[in-house]
Amino acid sequence: MKQLIILFTFCLSFVIANAQDERFEEGNQQYSDGNFQAAIDTYNGILSTGVESGALYFNLGNAYYKNGELANAILNYERALLLKPHDKDVKYNLELAYTQTTDKIESVDEFFLSKWVIDFRNKATSDTWSYIGVICFILTLVMAALFFFSNSVLLKKAGFYLGVGLLAGTLITLSFSYRQKSKLVNRNHAIVFSPSLTVKSSPNANGTEIFILHEGTKVEIISTLGQWKEIQIADGTVGWVEDTSITII
Q1: Of the residues 184, 202, 234, which one is the last residue of a structural domain?
Q2: C-alpha gyration radius of the chain
Q3: Which end of the chain is more exposed for a tag (fewer CB within 10 A), N or C?
Q4: 204 pLDDT exceeds 60?
Q5: For 90-122, what is each residue's pLDDT tens digit?
Q6: What's the rounded Cα separation, in Å, for the pair 179 and 185?
Q7: Judgement on whether residues 61 and 11 belong to the same structural domain of the protein
Q8: 64, 98, 132 — which closes off a domain?
């Protein structure tokens, strides 16, 4: 009986996956035919089943972009980038979409080394970095065995220095994996969806108006108080907005 249940579950998963593939291809065909709203509905229908992928979000972003819905296009490009942080096409389309937003906010300068580390970390997903980390750890154990059990001084030295390097590589790659996973789980960035959004100095409607943001701008969520979100924009300015005016990436 247990084997039959497992077989049934496997077959059902296969059928569902095949059906989703067919719907994805259907959406792609609708997009190719210029029927962008139909493609949007098809892609969103797939997402409503709990299935998600970088390619799905990317194609949905393209359909929204062609349909003239800039904020939705940016939102889905950003979601695609979370799943495919190394994808050049996603990055290019996202940057192109941002050039068409109203707000041109200068980012706070990052230390060049920090920027290099982030760019390097984004060359792979969380899973890829974890696989590399496991391989480095296994090789570290091999080098440790070489150091402790080899009779050759040269091999002992090689085992020691390579082991230290591989151990460092293990710690670095696993930390990269953790950070990439954290970005997926703890999503603290959002896109403005209001055509014109007034940012307040405090979490209430009577707060002082600080500045105005427009549709498509990306913000970082710092804290939450009821229906209000404390946000920070790229230049470091902080304020409060109602959560209905933004959508979390």
Answers
A1: 184
A2: 24
A3: N
A4: yes
A5: 999 999 999 999 998 887 766 778 888 888 998
A6: 10
A7: yes
A8: 98
**pLDDT, tens digit, for every residue of 52-66?**
999 999 999 999 999
Contact 187, 221 (CB under 8 A): no
Q: Residue 59: give its domain's CATH number.
A: 1.25.40.10
| Total tally of structural domains belonging to the chain | 3
Q: What is the pTM of this model?
A: 0.80
The tokens 């259907």 sit on which residue? 26
User: Residue for token digits 């003239």?
Assistant: 68
